Amino acid sequence: MDDTKKKRYILKVLTSYLVVFYSIWAVYTILIEPLIEKGPLLLNLIGGNFIKLGVWTLPSLILLKYVFEEKPLDYVKLSQNRLRGLAYGSLYGVVIVVYVSVSRFLSSGELKFNPFFSLDSWIGGVLLIGFTEEIVFRGFLLQKFEEAMGSKYANAITAVLFLLIHFPKWYMQGNLFMVEFMMNSILFIPLFSILMAVLLKKTNSLWTCIIIHSANNFAMFALGA
Fold it and tell me: Membrane-crossing residues (predicted)?
């Protein structure tokens, strides 16, 4: 397969994948997740997180292995440069927590830091977030789009896609129509995505992105943001 055909093939597969992925996730978030949240705590903790792993992470790894014929863990950069990724992730993770805390204090005039937030948020929003979101967006989509159209466009497209995947949840929370919330999110999330792309390139390890994403969410939950 020549280079042009390869790029077209990648874009065709990614387009089909994204249509299915975003459709399934929107239906799940709007129709199914509210039912799970009303159920027993164990169902919420295990069921919701397993569903996200099944809808987000597993399909991307399957596509890499059986459609693109890659070694999934190597491709998403989980199996190499672990120490380098952990070191950079820890360093920038601390920076993120401090930045979010200072920003919160400057905007509200107070700082209430509570690390004892809900177990569901700890498991799904902090501990598993890298495996459910970073593998898909930085490990899979960013790098595949980069193969098809170069870093500049890949970074921009991935940033927009990362923003859009949050829309169903924001709709259910009522945040989609809150102007201040949306303005802050539209600025922060694409910039966060681009920062993750830069650090992935610099460290050649997805562990950097995983730890920073976890640190960011930890700060948000601990500050009640």
Answer: 9-31, 43-64, 85-102, 122-141, 153-171, 177-199
| Cα–Cα dist 216/97, whole Å | 6
Write out residues in the chain with pLDDT < 50, as ranges. Answer: none
Contact criterion met (CB below 8 Å) for 157 and 142 = no
Amino acid at 172: M
Residue 46 structure tokens: 């295990």
CB 129 within 8 A of CB 215: no
Instruction: Give the tens place of pLDDT for each residue, 193-211.
Output: 999 999 999 999 999 999 9
At residue 111, the 3 state secondary structure works out as coil
Residue 147 Cα distances to 57, 84, 138, 155, 163, angstroms: 20, 24, 13, 12, 21
What is the C-alpha separation between 156 and 145, in angstroms, rounded? 10
DSSP 204: -
What are the structure tokens assigned to 68, written together?
Answer: 């693109």
Angle between helices 206-222 and 82-108 (to 10 degrees): 30
Rounded Cα distance, 15 and 19, in Å: 6
Distance between CA atoms of residues 20 and 56, nearest Å: 11
Q: Are 97 and 219 in contact (CB under 8 A)?
A: yes
Q: Find, among 27, 53, 59, the residue nearest to 130 by Cα.
A: 53
